[in-house]
Every structure is written in structure tokens, then in C-alpha cells.
């Protein structure tokens, strides 16, 4: 948890590094809390299920119950698959949101440059001796 907090605090300055943080942290930071909550909950559920499946497998192995052991392995494997898939989808979604944010900044900068050029040309037209 400490590593996650350190990674998150240092990654706030770098959106590329922030995009790879788990549990939807990037989407919370980029004002997409619903998506962040979905990824956080599915990843936490996957991790919790994997831990529970491991505990169930240990108990089943101690009791020599092969059917319960197989079930525990399925629970554990499915939970790992859920957490991994959720994380990979959050990477794709986070990179898409980061790209949209970068395009928005570039578009905003272009508009500001255009507005500055229009204002500059308007100020030149108002100068005495420059008109028709």
C-alpha cells in the first residue's frame, strides 16, 4: 500500500505513469469517478476472490477433499483472471482518457494562439496610418 501511495504521489506530475496505476486511480484523478469505481471494485473483488480461493484450497488439501480443492482452484483462477482483465481494460481506458486530455490541451492551445493572432491583427488595424 505504501508503494502504491508513493507511486501515485510521484505519478501525479506525469500522466503517462499515472495511467498505469491499478484500482482506477488515474480515472479518479482525471474526473472519471464512475469508471474508477468500477475498476477498483472489480480488481479488489478479484484479489479478494484469489485470496479466498487460496485459503479454501489449503483447507481442502488438509482435508484431502479433491472436489473442494478443484473448486477452490477454479475460484482462485477465475478471480485472478477477473483482476487481471479489469486491470488491462483500465490500462486501455486510462490511456484513451490520457490521449483525449492531451488532444484537448493541444486544441485549447491552438484556439488561444488563434485568438492572440486575431487580437494582434485587430490592434494593427486600429493604428493610425495602417488603414485604407
Describe this structure in words.
- The protein is mainly α.
- The chain has a domain at 20-97.
- The chain is 83% helix and 0% strand.
- The chain is built from five helices and no strands.
- The radius of gyration is 26 Å and the shape is rod-shaped.
- The model is unreliable at 9-13 (pLDDT under 50).
Structural class determined from secondary elements = mainly alpha
> How many E-type strands?
0
Q: What is the helical fraction, as a range of percent? A: over 70%
**Coarse morphology:** rod-shaped
Ranges where pLDDT stays below 50 over 5 or more residues in a row are: 9-13
Share of residues in strands: under 5%
Separation of the first and last Cα atoms = 70 Å
Q: Main β-sheet, in a few words?
A: none
Q: What is the CA-atom radius of gyration, in angstroms?
A: 26 Å
Summarize the entry for a quick read.
This protein has 132 residues and is mainly alpha-helical. The protein has helices at residues 2-11, 15-18, 25-29, 33-63, 66-125. α4 (33-63) runs antiparallel to α5.
List keywords for this structure.
132 residues, mainly alpha, rod-shaped
Q: Topology, please?
A:
Layout: H1 2-11, H2 15-18, H3 25-29, H4 33-63, H5 66-125
Helix pairs in contact: 4-5
Amino acid at each position: 500500500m505504501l508503494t502504491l501511495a508513493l507511486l501515485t504521489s510521484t505519478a501525479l506530475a506525469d500522466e503517462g505513469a499515472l495511467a498505469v496505476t491499478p484500482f482506477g486511480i488515474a480515472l479518479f484523478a482525471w474526473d472519471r469517478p464512475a469508471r474508477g469505481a468500477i475498476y477498483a471494485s472489480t480488481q479488489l473483488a478479484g484479489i479478494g476472490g484469489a485470496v479466498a480461493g487460496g485459503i479454501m484450497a489449503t483447507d481442502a488439501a488438509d482435508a484431502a477433499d479433491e472436489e473442494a480443492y478443484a473448486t477452490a482452484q477454479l475460484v482462485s483462477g477465475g478471480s485472478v483472471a477477473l483482476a487481471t482483465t479489469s486491470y488491462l481494460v483500465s490500462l486501455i481506458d486510462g490511456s484513451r482518457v490520457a490521449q483525449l486530455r492531451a488532444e484537448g490541451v493541444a486544441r485549447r492551445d491552438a484556439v488561444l494562439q488563434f485568438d492572440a493572432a486575431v487580437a494582434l491583427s485587430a490592434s494593427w488595424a486600429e493604428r493610425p496610418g495602417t488603414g485604407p
